[in-house]
């Protein structure tokens, strides 16, 4: 049987080799500027065989019978060129590289430009095909079809990518900490306080040119990744002068026109800003010890400086609103070609959800409820985004660019929680009133230089700033004995729980502020060896990267406590309890205490330097090997003031060599086999190192850092087969394997009560899987409907295992680092946190020449660990949900476009379930047909989302000759 199969395989290969008539390929460039002529036509005279040049000026004529032909090359406003006696041999490829010269006169209403288009589906596929590392991507053209609002919505359509909390990216089942994000080739600062992550909802989709996700490492890329490197490229310069405006109105089921409870914030909240009265007065003593040594009346005097803004108000939720203004201009200053692209976005959106929250006893009995609540959660989010890019083309060999991106986001969140502490016998009513502001600014100046045909050099210098503020997050808990009645026979009133010492669960006000500044400098060079017109010339790439990051973080927490018996006050309305006359520090009243610890504020410095060298080695015309070496030096320091003395908490200096190999074998002009190996790493973030304790209201858990964290080291192996049937079609299969040494994972501390998480180094872990991507068009079909149809789909199967080892090191409840023997505490092996076992994305796109488009999109991810458990507290999983989106759009006279979008049509519940059986699966008790052994911890529906958008181009687009 094996012999027969081998004979059959060899016969098929032989038939394929000899049956192929032959082909012609080559490139077409401008004779003067040497830029590719995108769309130039190539035709074999006397036949119907022809093609158009792609974004790199390359073309291919397939299935050409053997013989000699005359080739006709044409392009608008260029002189036609005829190439006679082009010989094609059976099974071989003939290469033609030619140039066209401009005609003497230019035509009106025609744009002839050598700038490379990068934002189309064809362009992205072409770029991925030519990259040495294994990569996938999505174009602005596809994003526009999908009507995705931001980068988070768009990137989930990339193979192996899923989204957590509607803004954080996971690649190949690995959390955001294992992914690097670059905007215009500069590493972005983290947008979050508690984790290393970038919030993709900060980048509106209409400023994106393309997004490329690198799955394998290379010397040119940052070494701090394991899942992938996401490169977001913003729009560069326009081909035409234009001004466009767009307005969107949105309706969300279960939110829009509903009556909700919210709290007031002074200042320009609709711009994501707040007023001075929401900030903590500078009059407060800096240290809690100094503050708490004051008398109760003195502390109450400070408490009266905190505004009484606790009262809630009812309001009807208005429809969501979004506005966008896009402008593009090109002009000349002397001999310099100048262009500007400006985009301004504003949105005001709403989200209401009724959240079911349950905590269980987790003893021998299933569904033994400990606490049960229903949250009425309402959030209003405002966002302003500005993109402002300038490009200066001094000559064909020197370009200068200045790119600036600004985002300001404000989120006002109100949660009213009602329910029971079942075991303790109390009815509970909790309130959380929170305002969060985030600002991100990145500005970059870059230059591209060409030194002849062989050498190119580019440099980028940039500054980034991230700010995050939580001014006056108020939390209060009311309770009463379940079923208790007063003398009138009515239910007893709720009473505020005011503990003796401040704690984050009960009554208090929290303030935090983060400022992070990043300076970067990158220089990259490329030198071509041999003839630069070769299809695949050998190249050497080299470069350096430097980054300086400074972070300052501070938090303050104040709790209210009583003087004597203050039950009369504490039973009042939430809007009247904290009036100045009640917060007086007198008998029967309230005062405040400072619950802040010295470690609640810290400063960090990170110096990161890297250098790399890589080169190509061609083995004939089909095989190419890229060998790279990158060295990274990192110095991470963390400090905090303890009793007014600056103390060093962390000082990690580490140099790590990072080799990489990327091998491509061209089976044919349309088929590639790729193999890749790379060594990468994963560093701890400031927040994961800082021994600061943060309370998560939704999880009811403390989160604290670990100063003993080590840098994780990762070995990556990838293999990919890719097939390009046409310029906009793709079929690929990718397999990968990753081995982690000292991976950083979350760890649930063994505590007496409550939940407390930290970060630890596990011993090792593995992650492996397979990915499939298909993009299929039907341009050759005789049916017009099919000619306009494109099918896109990708799926991933992934498996991971974490081996914690016998001991892990982390902080205890006092903050001191100890070694935990895991015997009897937790499972020593489990899947990696946040890792999905499967991901599926599919889409059907229809685009008619008349300007009518529609698409249907589907997405699902597999059950993944949301919160790591132990033997006392089961692991909590985020459960799969099917998401279907529908988008329809129509253009009218190329000036007006109307769009209808329906997102999350099925509106399936978001579920977080705990694995009571500890079998790694969420299901039913095998001993009972009705009772579920695994319970939902949180459950809610976001609501289907309907949007109508009108986009209009003002005036007529100005065509630039």
Automatic annotation (TrEMBL):
InterPro entries: Beta-barrel_TonB, Beta-barrel_TonB_sf, CarboxyPept-like_regulatory, Plug_dom, Plug_dom_sf
Segments forming a coiled coil: none
Localization of this protein: Cell outer membrane
Top-level taxon in the UniProt lineage: Bacteria
Main location: membrane
Domain TonB-dependent receptor-like beta-barrel: 427-903
Keywords: Cell outer membrane, Membrane, Receptor, Signal, TonB box
Keyword Signal: yes
UniProt-listed SUPFAM superfamilies: Carboxypeptidase regulatory domain-like (SSF49464), Porins (SSF56935)
Record-level GO cellular component terms: cell outer membrane
Family named by the database record: Belongs to the TonB-dependent receptor family.
Protein name: TonB-dependent receptor
Source organism of the structure: Dyadobacter sediminis
Top-level taxonomy: Bacteria, Pseudomonadati, Bacteroidota, Cytophagia, Cytophagales
